[in-house]
Amino acid sequence: MRVFPWGFWLLCVASAPARGDSGSKARSCAEVRQLYGAKGFSLSGVPQAEISGEHLRICPQGYTCCTSEMEENFANKSRSEFEAMMKEAGRSVQATLTAQHRSFDSYFQDLLNKSEKALYDAFPSMYGELYTQNMKVFKDLYSELRRYYRSSNINLEEALNEFWTRLLERLFKLMNPQYHITDEYLDCMVKHAEQHKPFGEVPRDLKVKATRAFIAARSYAQGFLVGSDVVKKVSQVSLSHECTRAIMKLMYCPHCRGMSSVRPCNNYCLNVVKGCLANQADLNTEWKYLMDSLMVVADRIDGPYNVDTVIGTIHMRIAEAISNLQENKDSITAKVFQGCGNPKISTKGSSSEDKKRRGKVTLEAKSSAQALEMLVLDAKGNLTALKTYWITLPSSLCSKKVMASSASDDKCWNGMTKGSYLPEVMGDGLANQINNPEVEVDITKPDMTIRQQIMQLKIMTNRLGNANIGNDVDFQDTSDDMSGSGSGDSCPDDVCGKRLSKSPSTRQPETHAIPKQSGRGVNGASSRSLPSASLLLLLSVAVIAPQHLWR
């Protein structure tokens, strides 16, 4: 006979938390009504006081201020707001990387522009017709240099060789106007040019140094753009259905329960966000490699490759080469005649180029090394700060956007009521979410958009690794097979220099394995290689097909 009263008492105790501290009196829904209206929803049908919550599908089914329609609207709102948080955080990173690219790009373009202007200003008075009749040769050189820097599919070594060949042909004819020099004769002269070294050591030396500087500069600039593009595309990835429910429960269910002033528990928030951003966290490893690689190449640009000196003095090296040709004109002409025979005397008469040559002008290079040093220091500081972006994003969102409580708070929203949160915090990445208590995550179905961006990070890191050791890579197609034969960690300057100074008449830009990635930067290339484009396509089909079958 006492079972019924005791059972009835237990039911009363069990239902007590749903009504809060107000006892049997239903609590007012004024705060929820105010919030709901502020979010842009109509207050029609919104309860004035708590109602029974058996209809709820996401929030706990105790007494509630939310109808089914309100729960659905709050769920959609939480989804859009969380995605907006992601995009806002991403835009901040994008802005940082884009600003770094803009600063370096402006600096580098300015170096080229100043060198070209110095050439145009000084060469007419220095060389007379030697310059005025060959202006296009010089303009074409700077155009090719800019095209290469902007990632056009041209071979820089070939472009430099072509410049010296064209310049030699035209200067040889101008210095020997008394002869009728045919195109066939010029071809013969060019064949002997490497042996006679009419420009001295300038072409070889400039080719080695300029190639290294340009490879490093364009890879460095491209690295910032790739990083920014990856963040943009990843930030646009939509939330899953399971994540939307978890975010709704985190952000709006406390309002439905009449606990608008109770903040979410910090560890509860972390588990929700880590589950929602599990795929994004998998970017962490390759993202850190990219940041490290950019910092290593930055040191190269401001150090051994000496971009400021090499690029800023191109006009001076050309002037030095022309002076070498003029000073050794007679001996070089004699050697050419010996190898190719004496050309016919011209019937048009002769006029000496020396008569048209003006007095010598001293060329000076204005150093901007300090500006480059400041650029590199600023870039390295920002890159260091961004290295852990993907794994610190959940903590950042919880503390700054969701406004979660402190970790020690035992009177926070834990997903069910006001209290402490007991489950442990999950690790980072997809594989660590298998036991996530807040978000159902299928670790067998990685997000394909994010996997593609991971591959883009690998490809860019590979390019920077090659730039670090002075090797060129093709920038045209990021899906190209990047699994070339790796170059070891040790590539002394004299060895790399010899490799780059070989005739590039048939040489195409090289590709190499991904640089050794130890978290400390890129010191060379390792045996790790990227899959080919066809293999990537097959893998994508293999992953996507089962997903459609499971659905």
TrEMBL record:
Q: Where is this region: Disordered?
A: 475-526
PROSITE patterns for the chain: GLYPICAN
Indicate the segments annotated as coiled coil, or none if absent: none
Answer yes or no on keyword Signal. Answer: yes
Q: Does the keyword Disulfide bond apply?
A: yes
Instruction: Provide the primary localization.
Output: membrane
Bias kind Low complexity: ranges: 481-494
InterPro entries noted in UniProt: Glypican, Glypican_CS
Signal peptide boundaries: 1-20
One Pfam family named in its UniProt record: Glypican
Q: Which UniProt keywords apply?
A: Cell membrane, Disulfide bond, Glycoprotein, GPI-anchor, Heparan sulfate, Lipoprotein, Membrane, Proteoglycan, Secreted, Signal
GO biological process, any: regulation of protein localization to membrane
GO terms for cellular component = cell surface; extracellular region; plasma membrane; side of membrane; synapse
Any one GO MF term held by the record is: fibroblast growth factor binding
> Where would you find this protein in the cell?
Cell membrane; Secreted, Extracellular space
Q: What is the recorded membrane topology of this protein?
A: Lipid-anchor; GPI-anchor
**Function as written in the Swiss-Prot or TrEMBL entry:** Cell surface proteoglycan.
The family line of this record is: Belongs to the glypican family.
Q: What's the name of the protein?
A: Glypican-1
Write down the species. Mionectes macconnelli (McConnell's flycatcher)
